[in-house]
């Protein structure tokens, strides 16, 4: 609803003796609501009306809402594209195990494990499978390792033994993040162990003065192991990934872990 202001008081009259003519009084100011004239602004002193560039309220709200919807859809599309990893299944009928892995990972031969795959872009991210010797082991169940907590300690000790270094000034920090057990759809029980290991080293190993030996972080990794028993052997699926990458790829790595199965080998 338009609102009209009271007219301005007229200027005081000059004395009659003065021959000076007074300027005509300016027209009264008027305030006009945006609903009546959305694109115009009227000046108070009779100046020419100017047009201001404006967008109608409904159009502005529609633009804002459409922008929000587009942004939300774009975010969902990107998240879906990032999480839509295609997996392949690897089956070893001779040794008796299988698992799924991201299809873009490549197999590396001669890595020392029974099988070894790695990410072609994040070289520090890989998976492998190792087994106990069939001639020197006689496992009946994964529970032969004790409870999951005890198995986790054994897994961590094994990792630290493998990562022992003869370099001066190298220090490792480790901790067990979680241990658990589950029964898969094949009816077998599996243990899952997650550990974190950090490696520190001096930037100048041969420096004499302590201030010249600055300790720096070499790497910070998450190690995930799945343990299962079949054919009187202990099988272990190992996943290694940098902690900085684990946050983004955790779901994919857990799918690999959940897919690991040990199978009876026919003699």
From TrEMBL:
Which residue ranges does the record annotate as region Disordered?
A: 1-27
Picking any one GO biological process from the record gives: photosynthesis
**What is a single cellular component term in the Gene Ontology annotation?**
extrinsic component of membrane
Q: Which GO terms describe its molecular function?
A: calcium ion binding
Please indicate which superkingdom the organism of origin belongs to. Eukaryota
Q: Where is the signal peptide?
A: none
Report what the protein is called: PsbP C-terminal domain-containing protein
InterPro entries, A to Z? Mog1/PsbP_a/b/a-sand, PsbP_C
Instruction: Report domain PsbP C-terminal positions.
Output: 87-262
The lineage is: Eukaryota, Viridiplantae, Streptophyta, Embryophyta, Tracheophyta
